[in-house]
Amino acid sequence: MKTSYREAMRDAIREAMQADPRVFLMGEDVGRYGGTYAVSKGLLDEFGPARIRDTPLSELGFVGVGIGAAIGGMRPIIEIMTVNFSLLALDQIVNTAASLRHMSGGQFSVPVVVRMATGAGRQLAAQHSHSLENWYAHIPGIRVLAPSTVADARGMLAPALADPDPVIIFEHVQLYNTTEDLDWPQPVDIDSARIRRTGSDISLIAYGGSVPKATAAAETLAGQGLDAEVVDLRVLRPLDTDLITRSVSKTHRAIVVDEGWRSGSLASEVMARIVETAFYELDAPPRRVCSAEVPVPYAKHLEQAAIPQVNTIVSTAWNVIGDR
User: Fold this and answer.
1) pLDDT, tens digit, for every residue of 31-66?
2) What is the torsion angle, in degrees rounded to the nearest 10, for the CA atoms of residue 152, residue 153, residue 154 and residue 156?
3) What does the buried/exposed string (b/e) look like for 107-139 if buried means 16 or more CB atoms within 10 Å of the residue's CB?
4) Phi-psi map region of 241: left, alpha, beta (phi>0 left; psi -120 to 50 alpha)
5) Which of the residues are catalytic?
6) pTM (2 decimals)?
7) C-alpha 15 chain-centroid distance
């Protein structure tokens, strides 16, 4: 049965709430409006305002409330409208949720899930087109997930809610309308990366909204005689260094695709780990395909020029092959 990424997230929330009365959803416009990206549409009628809670426009406030509820034994799912708004809650996420287990000597855990939309491509300009996954992947004490497939969108929430520590789930805005055949939800491992396409000539390493682009680039390259492997990081903290190393050790070349800005990007960390663990397996220097070092433009043609695209990944792959 064809299921959209949006519907998969909604089904995962519904299933979690049906299975555990401690689970509730809170955030701006999640109730009567149905969510900014319609993920929670219909859930208010089904579960009522006590469990689908519209909040004031104060990320610092309602994220703090969610953290407190988690400490008190509840299992909150907090929706932050877009990743840029999460900056208003950094103190709660970084200084409280991520550190409380350490600061309490293991006496307290914070089993909270924070969902947020991320990424560019919908002409939302510089205010709402950020890819800040690496900011959160930098912080010990939290798990960071970036589901790129409908199956992962459906299956990652349950193990995230079971995690005793905070989990952040990044949902790329360009994925909400994507569809896949999803007859029955399968258990999803939230510790490991995945190979989305096997190949022997070069590894294309990506996450979130960049995975479909890396896959499309691999198909284009296959038609040109180059066999590319696509690695979906999907778990950004902790990174699955072993799988990255195995892939690069097989293909001997690597490109990391990351919608974040190049400087200080997650791609930089992945490349550093490749050099640390597989340097002598490389036949060419690894490369990055990242967003241009500018605020994301509003104009569609400029926006598309600023973020990674399939043709850029393809041309970069051939440049890497030329470095033999």
Assistant:
1) 999 999 999 999 999 999 999 999 999 999 999 999
2) 60
3) eebbbbbbbbbbbbbeebeeebbbbbbbbbbeb
4) alpha
5) 59, 128
6) 0.96
7) 21
